[in-house]
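pipeline/complex-builder :: batch 7 item 3
reading input block
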Amino acid sequence: MDAKKKIFYSRPYRRLKFNKVNNLLYLLLFVMPILILLIKSIPNISSLMSYLGVKVLGRYFPGIPMQIVNSRIAIIGIVEYIDLPTVYPKIAFTFLNFIVVILLLIFVSTGKRKGNIASIFFTIALFTHLINCIYFIFASNYFPYSAFQYSDLYMKQQIGIWVIFAILTGLITGFLGEKGLFYKMSMLIGTILYSLVFGIIRYILFLYILQRFSVLYMALMFFVFGPFFDFLYLVGIYSIFMNKMIELYESQAGKDEWLWS
Amino acid sequence: MVINILRAYMIFTIIVLLIYMTRHFVFTNNRILGRQRLYYNDIYSSRMKSISVLIPMHNEEQVLENVLESLLKCDYDRDRLEIIPINDNSTDKTRELLDEYHRKFEFIRPIHRDCPDRGKPAGLNDAMKIARGEIIVVFDADYRPAKDMLKQLAIAFEDPEIGAVMGRVIPYNTNKNLLTRLINLERSGGYQVDQQARYNLKLIPQYGGTVGGFRKDILLKTGGFDPLVLAEDTELTYRLYTSGWKVIYANSAECYEEAPETWEVRGKQIRRWSRGHNQVLFKYLFKTITNKKMKFREKLDGVLLLFVYAVPFILALAQFVSLILFFLGEMDIFSGYWVILFIGVYSSFGNFAPFFEIGSALMIDGIKREAFLLPLLMFNFYFYMWNISLGFFDSVADVITRRKVKWVKTERFHQENEIEDELDEKLLNI
């Protein structure tokens, strides 16, 4: 075995220095105001989302009756969203989806692909759509949602994601030692901004899909590309943040921040 | 009525997940910011307790030399040490190789088992009958104990409260592929943060079946390992706590293992762990709740730990229920709770630590760049949910049918020289 070029600090019992006052100040003077600002801005953000949605959808579907409606949510205030017609799938289209899903299910769950993470993920996703197709083949008249209801629920769900992501990110960054204030602030603001942009684009895209391809894809959008997908970018941003923090605490500037108890 | 039951189940799931998320959050902050409870590193004993090192083996000709050579280099009085490799129905050259070691070193005393009841618990029971040591230390055949490992583990038993000790497990083949890198992340979170935090908070650090030791007399007095339980390590943890003993975690006692390199092998391993852990859940849940020797905090953590491999099944069922509710027109239940549910899903998943726990573990370990892999844990989540749920069904079937479990060894991937190279590379970077 080669000799070590560098002897690293012992890792088993080290911990970060923690100043309660500084961390409390970070939470009270930075996280809390941003959270309040976010909550207060949600009515305006929902207006912007609806406005952009109507603009974009109007370009692709000229002449369809579309309007912006609103409802009141406790604490948040008046929230706007788009009301648009519901497009139901034709039976031939549903059958086509059913056959394609069956073929894809066979493909992802057989051969060398069987049992790996991608296979299981896609099997569960496709299974959701398969159930959906069967439902529309046998009971499409009983489908309980309209595009309007979906639009309303998406907005409420998205507001939940924004608020909870802000709280979660604030808590994660708020208890991570003394250094890296810039990274912590960037993580919080970056997550909220990305979440806002992603939420707006996805809202318009989902409404476009409902209008273009019918409500057949509603379950898929809800269960596979819904809130669970938001975690992908949350953890993605977190991973960049943590890598920066690790580099910082392993550098000359961060070495004095460790305690061995 | 049905809808109300389904709704109630969803709310139950959300509450369960929030409890686990809070638990992980407390552990993470305790580990990264709190005062750490040290192991007995600074204690020396002029007369260490006598130990028997047990190494279960089934067709281990590829790797047995590594573990035996490492143990031979260990710093421990030879007159207080014996090594008992348990050759469990091997069909390769394990027997010949072990007998050769026995000829060279008298204190290596292999036992050869050629009987139908193959398995780690049964093998350990047989070995304990002939073991001379007061303390039993167990290593898997692919492990590479460091020079001071035996002393580090054995010193814990100078404390009369301690029934078992557990060291830290680190994969050495982390650079092999994506799977081994992801396992390394989970191991880091699971040991550096989770186990150490539970030790700090005087909860229940878990004995993990290898890189650890226990008092032989406790096991023998209580009938040895139960061969019907696949997770003999978890079973021992609960047996000790419900009898008034403590398990101690030695974060500084690091030992290297080979992580599975294919998804198929990993899936089988996870399913087996789930089956074994859930067998312990059914056996010890009531005993843990009603036990008078355990403190409240130990009971609380004990119950949560018992359910760790049931939670993914609860989640899988919740996903199915949510699909039913969706088609029954009850989507509004998710508009508020759904988001919280998924936070819980991602944050509380089993003993495979959530992303912020792993991130903190990587920071403490000083491992750069690997944090970029964290988003991929999302796909792993489905993989685990599937295999752990299957393991849960296996354990339920075990309870109902009282069938005999079949012990299956995790497939090995490396030859001795490859292990040497990978371990050297790993050791240079810590």
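note: Chain A has a mean pLDDT of 90.
queue -> next item
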